[in-house]
Design brief:
Layout lengths: L2 E5 L6 E2 L1 H14 L7 H7 L4 H11 L6 H15 L7 E2 L3 H10 L3 E5 L4 H10 L8 E3 L12 H10 L3 E6 L2 H10 L3 E4 L15 E3 L5 H11 L1
Parallel strand pairs: 1-4, 1-6, 4-5, 6-7, 7-8
Antiparallel strand pairs: 2-3
The protein binds 2-phosphoglycolic acid and magnesium ion (MG).
Length: 220
């Protein structure tokens, strides 16, 4: 009986906001558009690169300019794949993934980050070897919070039980719609108070996740 743990990426396995922030500001500054703080940029992450750029421009009153939006997105995506310099896994991530693999679980990633940037950062950090399936925001026609990518991953792994681990509003909604138990990592990019986000378990340290996963999979 195969069982799987599917992870969100940005704000869950890795703290990538500093690189996303730097890439965005580089593109905006080329056009004399005022840069954002790290906290502001972090708050725009969650629905993929296109929505991230839309949110940046809309915060500067530039949401009506479709041509500008397309150019900024194109330049942002060019920088995004190499945006790995400041990105780090959260503390305890590798040891946690080792422990889950040792328990015989299949691991996968379901992120809204573009597929190319996802592959690049996972390889850069040596995390790619853990995952049997990796789905990005542009892998399918739909992305989270549509439940289809998560469901597709679980079907593709042939898993009879699964848990989803993520940090955000998007992840909580995805898990609920896919009817998959959800563990919320509380140290990521969520904007909503923890109590207001539906979750089956929550954790602030990756050391605690193997026991949580065991409990969620036993209950499912
Ligand atoms: O890149 C994003 O907007 C979100 O990425 P995530 O789904 O891994 O949190
Ligand atoms: Mg996330």
């Amino acid at each position: 009986m195969r069982r799987a743990v599917v992870f969100d990426l940005d704000g869950t396995l890795i703290d990538s906001a500093p690189d996303i922030h730097a890439a965005a500001n580089t593109v905006l500054e080329r056009r004399d558009i005022a840069p954002f703080t790290l906290a502001e940029a972090r708050g725009f992450v969650g629905h993929g690169a296109a929505v991230f750029v839309e949110r940046c421009l809309s915060a500067r009153g530039l949401s009506e300019d479709a041509a500008l939006q397309a150019q900024v997105l194109e330049e942002f995506l060019e920088l995004y794949e190499g945006a790995v310099h400041q990105t780090r896994p959260y503390p305890g991530v590798a040891a946690c993934l080792d422990a889950l693999v040792a328990e015989g679980l299949d691991l996968a990633v379901c992120t809204n980050k573009p597929e190319g940037a996802t592959a690049a950062v996972l390889a850069h950090l040596g995390l790619d070897r853990y995952f049997d399936v990796v789905v990005g925001g542009d892998t399918f026609a739909v992305r989270k919070p549509d439940p289809a990518p998560l469901r597709e991953i679980i079907a593709c792994l042939g898993a009879v039980g699964a848990a989803y681990v993520g940090d955000s509003e998007v992840d909580a909604e995805t898990a609920a719609r896919a009817e998959v138990p959800f563990a919320l990592y509380t140290e990521g990019y969520r904007q909503t108070p923890v109590e207001e986000l539906p979750h089956d378990a929550r954790f602030e340290a990756f050391d605690d996740l193997p026991a949580i996963v065991r409990r969620l999979l036993a209950a499912g």
